């Protein structure tokens, strides 16, 4: 026999259960990481004092690199200086063994057939518009954009899509064919032109431009990428610091020089979704055991 008290309690519990919000299984925050892997590819290397024509990135460097990425645990990972599809698959496999499963991939390259860009994602890639055959003129000479522009849109949720543009501009290594700073300026112009073409189609696009720009913050190439502050196409330079408040992302050991060469730029519609309190430059004392760059880490919070 059901007493009045038991019946009232059953009714109260039923009403309470109906009034509970339905909790989504999808995360409301997403971690993005940008990282120059320092030649995760086969190339001529000097090992043990001897030159080897073809050798992959040393196993200990790869091991330490994926350990650091496992600590970051990104949902989307944008990398520079990776090689072939097989090299990307190797990176995926090693990350997955440490609990970071990033099955969706876009790989892009330009005139440099050795070093590629790649985007690895936990979420589906809904559109791919990478630019692989961009060229520019310096005087009478025509040059290819060495690594092209990786352009992939990731569906982070049913209501949030972010367009990721990855680049790796011309290195600071001098070459006889042309001035390396002028080459970067031209590549930056190609990047800005591509961004403007995207804005012309969708001024409200949520865009994140990332990578190794091989430039300092006050250089003309960076200013062109950022654009005019009064324009709707302005790209915000996101301020990231390490645990000591420092901003350098690259260490050149031969010269003992620390520089900020890696950047993240956000469009106006993406900027409100970025939690700068959680943005950082990943810090590890032995970062150089993996790469000469440090990872940039960003949290995008769906609102």
Unreliable segments (pLDDT under 50, ≥5 consecutive)?
6-24
**Tally of domains:** 1
Give a short account of the largest sheet.
Answer: 6 strands, mixed
Helix content: 10-25%
Top-tier CATH class:
Alpha Beta
Overall shape: globular
Number of strands: 18
Output the CATH homologous superfamily.
Answer: Endonuclease/exonuclease/phosphatase
Under the CATH scheme, the architecture is 4-Layer Sandwich
Q: What fraction strand?
A: 25-35%
Q: List the total number of helices.
A: 5
- Radius of gyration, rounded? 23 Å
Strands ordered across the widest β-sheet = 5-6-4-1-18-17
For the residues shown, what is the average pLDDT?
91
Structural class: alpha+beta
CATH topology grouping: Deoxyribonuclease I, Chain A
Separation of the first and last Cα atoms = 50 Å
């Amino acid at each position: 026999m059901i007493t009045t008290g038991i019946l009232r309690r059953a009714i109260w519990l039923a009403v309470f259960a109906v009034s509970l919000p339905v909790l989504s299984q999808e995360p409301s925050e997403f971690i993005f990481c940008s990282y120059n892997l320092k030649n995760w590819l086969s190339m001529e290397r000097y090992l043990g004092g001897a030159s080897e024509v073809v050798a992959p990135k040393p196993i200990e460097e790869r091991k330490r690199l994926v350990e650091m990425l496992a600590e970051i645990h990104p949902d989307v990972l944008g990398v520079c200086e990776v090689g072939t599809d097989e090299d990307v698959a190797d990176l995926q496999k090693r990350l997955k063994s440490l609990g970071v499963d990033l099955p969706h991939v876009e790989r892009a390259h330009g005139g440099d057939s050795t070093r590629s860009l790649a985007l690895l994602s936990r979420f589906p890639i809904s559109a791919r518009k990478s630019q692989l055959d961009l060229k520019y003129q310096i005087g009478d000479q025509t040059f290819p954009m060495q690594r092209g522009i990786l352009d992939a849109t990731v569906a982070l949720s049913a209501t949030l899509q972010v367009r990721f543009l990855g680049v790796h501009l011309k290195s600071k290594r001098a070459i006889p064919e042309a001035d390396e700073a002028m080459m970067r300026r031209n590549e930056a112009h190609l990047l800005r032109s591509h961004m403007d073409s995207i804005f012309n189609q969708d001024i409200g696009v949520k865009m994140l431009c990332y990578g190794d720009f091989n430039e300092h913050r006050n250089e003309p190439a960076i200013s062109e990428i950022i654009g005019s502050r009064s324009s709707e196409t302005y790209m915000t330079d996101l301020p990231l610091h390490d645990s000591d408040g420092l901003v350098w992302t690259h260490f050149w050991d031969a010269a003992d020089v620390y520089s900020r060469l890696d950047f993240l730029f956000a469009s106006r519609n993406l900027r409100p979704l970025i939690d700068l309190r959680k943005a950082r430059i990943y810090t590890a004392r032995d970062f150089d055991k993996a790469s000469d760059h440090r990872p940039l880490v960003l949290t995008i919070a769906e609102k």
